[in-house]
Amino acid sequence: VVKTINFQITLSLFGLFLAGFLVVLIVVDHLLTVNLRDDLMSQMRLQCLLADELIPSGTDSLQPRVEHVARLIEGRVTVVDETGRVLADSHHRQRVREYGNHLNHEEIQQAIRSVDGFGSSIRYSETINADLLYLAYKSPNRRFIRIARHQESLETIVDRVRTVFVVSALAILALSILASHLIARRIMRPLSAIIDSAQEIKSGHYDREIVVRENNEFGELGRMLNAMSTRLKDDIEQLRKLQDIRRDFVANASHELRTPVSSIRGYVETLLDGALHDESVSRRFLERALSNVLRLESIVQDMLDLSRLESRDRGLSLRYVDVSASIRNVMAEWEDSASRKGLRLLYETDLPADFRLLADPYQLEKALVNLIDNGIKYTETGHVRIQTHLTADRLEISVEDTGCGILPEEIPRIFERFYRVDKGRSRQMGGSGLGLSIVRHIMDIHRGSVSVESEVGRGSRFILLFPLHVDFTPSKGISPV
Ligand code: ADP
């Protein structure tokens, strides 16, 4: 592409040079010819007047005088009388009498008719066998003085000038081809740079930056391509990350499901191997198998929830929700497990009775369930306290416990899928490691957020933040975690 455009520019520039040159050539040639002819004419006019002065009026010694003048002016001189008879001719002394009447010759006719007494013509002279330029002067001495010159002499001069002109022109044209090529290359250089970089990007080097110093359209193109490749790079990185997450998810999920499945298999095999007949043993085994089935069910439910949440706003059915009522609902369900561990479940609220939050009530309760469940799971003594804090533009719901707390370095990770600080302990308590990542998704689709403050040994506080004036028109984009 570069070469073609380069060639086109070179050709166009060269064409321009050539056209310009031809115009100059024609004009100069024309001016030169006209000027030279004018010069020659006025010179010949003077010579006519001079000849008329130098050549006596009488017929005696006319011929030698005419020849003398002809030598002086380096031309042919003819003297013709009023009737058109040739009196003397510098070049044909002998045959003068054989000449025909000259009155009809064009230069004589012109001289008769013109105001200044001069007449001219260019024609072939049979006496001399050449093109001659004739100038006739009607003298007050009642005769015509005619001077003739080789037409060639004029043409030779013009030709010589033309030759010089054409030769130098060829040199100039050769230079202009070179100049055109250099100019074209200069114009094309930034584009070549862009193409080189684009080539790099094409072969996968997305971080290759296009450097275009020119502050023109090429510069803009370069900047645009840079922006494009940056975006492409970002998108690809994000896609890769997503891919990694998917792969991890499948691996983690399989691992997570395998444990309860192999437990169930163990219990069932033992039962079939004979334990079935001992009723107390078989009952215990069946109960254990059932608890593993329930665990399976809860993991599968969590995975389903997560995948539904991932399809973003699709799963969201918005209502004006009485938040206090939702919180009390969830607390009522978890009252038992709390009191079984000797924990107090508390609620402190600053919400007006008529306060309603635009949210998905099912998802809101699910987030609360996950946080309250965790609070109870990871707390041995003390309380789990739910609090609300309402401001002009947001509602915060916090779930605080007096449990084991979380190490600062673990905090960024606990919202990842399947991530558990203490795997054995969590699993033993029926955790799948998906709870907090579900909470995070729920907060995402409500355009809110979840955060945590925690101190090991003293407890944790999870805060749900709901912005109040949200525009829930669906948005595009992919959220990695
Ligand atoms: P799990 O099902 O294991 O509870 P979650 O996603 O709910 O999974 O939590 C991830 C990890 O975060 C838990 O394994 C636990 O280590 C930690 N965690 C969550 N909530 C609390 C809490 N209230 N106190 C202490 N650690 C917690």
Please explain how this structure is put together:
This protein is α+β, with helices and mostly antiparallel strands and 481 residues long. Helix content is 55%, strand content 16%. The strands form 3 sheets. It has a 5-stranded antiparallel β-sheet. Helix 5 (217-272) runs antiparallel to helix 6 (279-310) and helix 7 (323-340) packs parallel to helix 8. The radius of gyration is 56 Å and the shape is rod-shaped. Mean pLDDT is 86; it is low at 476-481.
Distance between the termini: 45 Å
Mean pLDDT: 86
Small-molecule components bound: adenosine-5'-diphosphate
**Unreliable residue stretches:** 476-481
Please supply descriptive tags for the structure shown above.
disordered C terminus; 5-stranded antiparallel sheet; binds adenosine-5'-diphosphate; 481 residues; 5-stranded mixed sheet; 16% strand; alpha+beta; 10 helices
Secondary-structure blueprint of this entry?
Elements: H1 2-54, H2 62-73, E1 76-81, E2 86-89, H3 106-113, E3 118-125, E4 130-139, E5 143-150, H4 151-202, H5 217-272, H6 279-310, E6 319-321, H7 323-340, E7 344-348, E8 357-359, H8 361-377, E9 383-390, E10 394-401, H9 423-428, H10 435-445, E11 449-455, E12 459-467
Parallel strand pairs: 7-9
Antiparallel strand pairs: 1-2, 1-5, 3-4, 4-5, 6-8, 9-10, 10-12, 11-12
Helix pairs in contact: 1-4, 4-5, 5-6, 6-10, 7-8, 8-10
This protein binds adenosine-5'-diphosphate (ADP).
